[in-house]
Amino acid sequence: MSRKVTIIGAGSVGSTITYTMAVNGLASEIVMIDVNTERALGEAMDIRQGTPFCSPIQIYAGTYEDAKDSDVVVITSGMPRKAGQSRIDLAQTNVDVIREIAPEIVKHAPDAIYILVSNPVDVLTYTFCKVSGLPENRIIGSGTILDTARLRSRLAEYLSISQKSIHAYVMGEHGDSSFVPWSTARVGSVEILDDKGGFNFTGRIKAKLNPEEIEQYIRTSGGKIIERKGATFYAIAISVCHIVDCLFGSSNRVMTVSSMLHGEYGIDDVCLSIPFIFGPQGICGNVLPAMTEQELEKLQHSADVLKGVIKQVNI
To answer: Which residues are annotated as a binding site for NAD(+)?
Structure first.
């Protein structure tokens, strides 16, 4: 079965996504597009030369015209976040990049599902919804899928339980106003915390769980990685490839990706992450867990933060 993916942006994130797709056999054809054509050519060549040990796949550098008949387009273009810089500080620069890219790529791949990865991802997802002319269900921001992965990874360390048995989400903005609705967090089908903040189950618990410490860890992880190695790209690449795998799957999945809200939790006209249902046709619904009044306030605050940024940029 032919599965064509176009990656716009051949920097560390775009190249790592391409590499991860190749190793996992997620696509049969990948086009890499970048304003730096030599970089795209080099990255494509480097990855392609290892593909004899992978599932059959074509990987090459190209132009927007080569994106024709793409099933999925992943947009990673934009200025990267620097140490000490918030995602929101990047807003106008990368909004301008999206406004430039959107008409060119949509002209050649009008039927693709689009995944926005560049930061601030919620603002850029909103921008793409407004300027692309595409149905909103075919526009997905990577949102807090990486934050959620970080949350589950951290909880697994605390609780000595497989990450796959932990069902907890980070919701809201992919940024400083994100939060964990702890009332919805589960191990198996049981709430992680009881009414007093203790555990509702027994096991090989390594340390007392501190929700505030865990949320701080999630929010600061990206910045710490940037300080230590200059950029983040492995974890986001794996996360994006998981989204692509779901889009190419035969059934729908629930994940915290970013999409336009239309009244969910009383929030409208902004893109942020709640548990959305998506699959081969893109976004097709959502799951709205019951949250406490305080958690609902945090979600509304996150929406307000993003709306404040949207008002300040020229879309």
So the answer is: 9-14, 34, 39, 64, 94, 117-119, 142
Same domain, 225 and 100: no
Q: For 160-292, where are the alpha helices, taking DSSP H only?
A: 211-229, 234-247
Of the listed 174, 242, 262, 301, which one is catalytic? Answer: 174
Q: Rounded to a whole number, what is the largest CA-CA distance in the chain?
A: 59
CATH code (residue 176)? 3.90.110.10
Question: Is-contact 233 12, C-beta < 8 A?
Answer: yes
Model confidence pLDDT, tens digit, residues 40-76: 999 999 999 999 999 999 999 999 999 999 999 999 9
- Of 123, 141, 159, the residue that ends a domain is 141
Using the 3D structure, point to which of 126, 141, 156 is the last residue of a domain: 141
Residues 10 and 121 in one domain: yes
Q: Find the domain containing 182 and state its range.
A: 145-312
- pLDDT (tens digit, 9 = 90+) per residue, 223-261? 899 899 988 999 999 999 999 999 999 889 999 999 999
Using CA atoms, how far apart are residues 185 and 44, in angstroms rounded to an integer?
Answer: 41
Residues 181 and 218 in one domain: yes
Phi/psi for 113 (5° steps) reads -95, 135
- pTM summary value: 0.94
> Which residue positions form the known binding site?
9-14, 34, 39, 64, 81, 87, 94, 117-122, 142, 147-150, 152, 167, 232
